[in-house]
Amino acid sequence: MLTSAANRQAVTVNVTGRSGTATFTAAPGETLLEAALRQGADVPYSCGSGSCGLCKARVISGRVETLWPEAPAYGKKHRADDALLCQCAAEAPGNHGTLELTLGGASGAISPPGTRPGRFDARVLRIDPIGDDLIEVELGLDRPIRYAAGQFGLFYFPGIVGGRAFSFAAPSPDTGSDRVLLVVKRKLGGPATEFLFARNAPGSRLEMFGPLGHAIFDPGCGRDLICVAGGSGLSFGLSVMGGATLAGHFSTHRGILVVGLRRPSDLASLARLGAMAETAGPGLRIIIALSDEGTVPPEGWTVPGVEVMQGFAHDVMHTAMAGHHANLMAYVAGPPPMIQAVQRVLLLEAKLPAGNILCDTFY
Predict the structure, then answer these.
(1) Least confident interval from 11-15, 103-107, 308-312, 338-342
(2) Among 8, 104, 152, 248, which residue carries the largest CB count within 10 Å?
(3) How far is CA 291 from the centre of its chain?
(4) 2 falls in which pLDDT band (50, 70, 90)?
(5) How far apart are the first and last CA of the chain?
(6) pLDDT digits 0-9 by tens, 28-82
(7) Helix (H) or strand (E) holding 258
(8) Vertex 235, ends 229 and 240: CA angle to 5°?
(9) pLDDT at position 8
(10) Is the pLDDT score of 1 beyond 50?
(11) Complete DSSP assignment for 288-313
């Protein structure tokens, strides 16, 4: 029988993997992943929102509270001792007064305090439509945040179980900012996106945990960049390539940004992409890939510096690369079928090392 979070005490947690043990303290009702990351403990994760399964662990001693039993990463064969760190809270310690779990990859390393994510109160400031089932959302935070280009936040909505991951659509200033920008695609039946698409969403209060994510732009990478983004993945693409643009990366390196759309109405205005192209200069090539056959862009839809090509994003990417595969770092974000198709091209045809392909895997 579960104990009310209000009546529970903080619990010491040990998560043991192949490379060591991560030790941290979890507050009542706090997800184990958030507790670990805010204290700098190194535990594996990718989506942070119950989809990827990378943080799935097994309870050895003690009890956890499963906050979202229907999380997709549990799969159809959900064992009683399975625990997604991102969807479980500590309920009670076990042997030796600690909650013990095992998984692969927990190193136990502690990150410096300046790099650790935290909880923020957030308020929806504005929501603007930017295409069919695509909106731009600006949120105000209770204090400034700094994050790397490509990172994301977990957003908690009133009345919705579990956090939902959304990439930040613009890199933060070096001094930080109390505003974050998201590009969100409507997901049929998705309670979080339905909340944001509601007319009364502006002014609503949320909570955010972040920044999170490993698929980030490194100004010192010294490589040409290719980024393929579709759907809400556009947010990730704008952040990564926007961060590289602001860093002056394309003055010495090449870059290709492929934005996968079905039809022009999916993105009504190309102004943001055009502004990026103008700032980056000729080193950055921006291409819109329209997958619906026979689609013709409306008059005035295109802008200088942004090309339009017919085809699926992975095919357009392959054509744009034109044999230029050396010294390349790739970023991919969007619907799972698109990500898989892009990865196949990069791994099997471009022979890019897996470590050079960074993916935003939540959806």
Answers:
(1) 103-107
(2) 152
(3) 24
(4) very low
(5) 33
(6) 999 999 999 999 988 999 899 998 898 999 999 999 999 999 889 998 878 889 9
(7) strand 255-261
(8) 75
(9) 72
(10) no
(11) EEE-STT--PPTT---TTEEEEES-H
Tokens read off for 335: 């619907």
The span from the CA of 341 to the CA of 337, in Å, is 6
State in words which class domain 8-102 has. Answer: alpha beta
pLDDT value at 238 more than 90: yes
For position 110, what pLDDT does the model report? 67
In whole angstroms, give the CA distance from residue 321 to residue 154: 33
Under DSSP, is residue 339 helix (H, G, I), strand (E, B) or coil? helix
Cα dist. 360→29, 279, 301, 339, 357 in Å? 27, 25, 28, 9, 10
Q: Give strand pairing partners of 66.
A: 88
176 dihedral zone (left: phi>0; alpha: psi -120 to 50; beta): left
Total residues belonging to the chain:
363
With 0-12 CB in 10 A as exposed, 13-18 as middle and 19+ as buried, what is 337? exposed
Specify the fold of 224-360: Rossmann fold (3.40.50)
Domain boundaries, the chain: 8-102, 118-212, 224-360
Q: What are phi and psi of 319, to 5 degrees?
A: -65, -45
CATH topology of domain 118-212: Elongation Factor Tu (Ef-tu); domain 3 (2.40.30)
Q: How far is Cα 116 from Cα 26, in angstroms, rounded to an integer?
A: 15
- Full-model pTM: 0.91
